[in-house]
Amino acid sequence: MRNWAVRVKWMVLLLGLFSFSAWAEENQKETKRIPMLEEVFVTAGRVEEPIRELSTQVTIIDNETIENSPYIELGDLLAEQGFAVRKYPGGLTSVAIRGFRTEGLGNDLKGYVLILLNGRRAGTGNLSKILTKNVERIEIIRGPAAVQYGSAAVGGVVNVITKQGEGKPKAYVEGIVGSWNQRETTLGFSGDYRKQFDFSGTYTYAKRGDYDTAGGKTYFNTGFDKLNNISLNGGWTFLPGNRLGVIYTGLAVDQAGAPDYYSRNDRDDHSDKSNQSLDVIYDGRVPQGIYSWKTRYFRGEDKDKWVSPVGSNPDGYDDGSTSERYTDSQGAQAQFSADFKPVLITAGMDWVNYQVKTTWNPTKTEYDDLAGFLLAKARFFEDRLILNGGLGYDGFETKVTEPAGKTGSETHTTPSLGLAYLPWKWLKLRTNYAEGFVMPEADQLAADFPAFGGRRYLGNPDLKPEKSRNIEGGFDLFWGSFHGLLTYFHTDFDDKIVVTGKAGNISTWKNLGGATLDGLEGEVGTDLGTWFQWPFELRPYVRFTYMTKYQDDQTGEKLLYTPDWTAAFGLTAAHPKCGFYSNLNFSYSGEQKIEDWEGGLYPAPVVTQSGYLTADLTLAQRLFASKNYGGLTVRGGILNMFNQDYVSVKGYPMPGQSFFIGLRYEY
Fold first, then answer.
1. How many whole angstroms separate alpha carbon 383 and alpha carbon 159?
2. How many CB atoms lie within 10 A of CB 34?
3. CATH superfamily, region 2-666
4. How far is 390 from 373, CA to CA, in rounded Å?
5. 3-class SS of residue 641
6. Using an 8 Å Cβ cutoff, are 634 and 174 in contact?
7. Phi, psi (5° rounding) for residue 16?
8. pLDDT in tens, 615-635
9. Of 35, 79, 502, 556, which residue is least crowded by CB atoms under 10 Å?
């Protein structure tokens, strides 16, 4: 393995030398400007609109960044981009935005950050179940988005948008090998037929063995035997502006290791995971573009199976158990927009139903939500002053059907209001107020079941939703290829749902406690090539979040699992005419207070987990391109380039320095 790694290392370095020589030989000047503020469109408000008209902060991870990233899982990609990610070996990953996080076990009903797939709930909060091979872009709404998307959108929303084919049909095949016996193969295609039928899709197969830590010791049971992923997006444009589309995504991971803490490395616990969904979507608009509409129906299923053979754990914790969770989901969306310029109005309804089966109590639960929303935007003074507002209404019903339980119901109304002002084309000032909420789950509202040690759990039908109120202000600067922004936010979080004891041996849930969170977010980037008229792109960038306050209102203590700093910064160099691309990226996550469960103490002591800085280098070079024979590109890189010994979760060290190299043939 070591000799092989050295060979790959030299191949990566030679690739870099070859790329720079090709760069130096190219004399023809070619510039590529970063889009101006008014040229970038997003769907954060449920319809496509210019980012210049938004009063909230939206981060876009574009197609170039996604395709050239060394990572194919959504969680790894977000960590590379400076988000607070917690990753367990074996495929369990969560992300935090502004101090709020997706649910740790991957059930999005109890999360505080919502993951979307093409604008609807992805059915999971586990980011390792979402791959990025057929993704056009990722939009991250920072701050509450409950008006548009309902429960769980407290800290923000991550919307993964798949590719829609266009242009002349093309296909590609890519193969990658790397450290830890990494093998990855992807087949992809996209295009359209007579601008009437469009199609885009990928199939990915991957496997990986156990990795070594930075100290050079093998962390056993950290790989997976097999990963299969399919992503398909096809559509029929039967009238101008009217498209009937079908989207399918499917992921299955077999024998993903569950190694436990490195200090008591378990060698045979494992899990099988899958997530799949099917969407049927109709988008339409009138020829003049004043009226537009969208309808959607989707079905999905999310499965997890955890296997713990008897006596395999060095501490003897394994009991031979197999636990499973199966979530069947379905839903529908309908919305209608009218853009009268200067006023844009969007109204719609969402329905979603989850049926959850588990091998633990309660074994069967159901969640049903029927929601309505109204969004409005008014533009004044030649579109220099934009007022945004919205109102959302959610009506929930939850059931515990096994063991026999009750039915719980709750309603919630959510407002938002924002203002954007552009005194000049290169400056936008913005402020926004929004609320978020998380509805109580079925067990919290309606459960009645026995648990370990003779204890009994009873639901509390009087529970209120957990709520947040967020106000923020900031500015965006765009001058040529330079873009920058800064945002200050303040969030009050109330009615936290916690488990409490009652008389006797009974536990229930109550609304107790709250928190206050303040922080700064910023992004800066430019293309030096456009400023100096170079024939290539040289793009430095910085993205960061700094939590100035994150404390529990009752105790005054810092919130757990919340880094004070997260950041990404680096340098991208590219020469499109030469087919060269390179990126040196640094990711930083600051120190945080955590509970230390590794020692086996109860309650777990609170300790400080140190921050860490990692670096990745990726390089790509087109070897040849021909109209008749297609093109061939070689890509390689070094991950954790300086062999940093770090953890995103205490006791679970991440891989040490590793290498990869691959070829992509496109025709």
1. 27
2. 17
3. TonB-dependent receptor, beta-barrel domain (2.40.170.20)
4. 7
5. coil
6. no
7. -65, -45
8. 999 999 999 999 889 999 999
9. 556
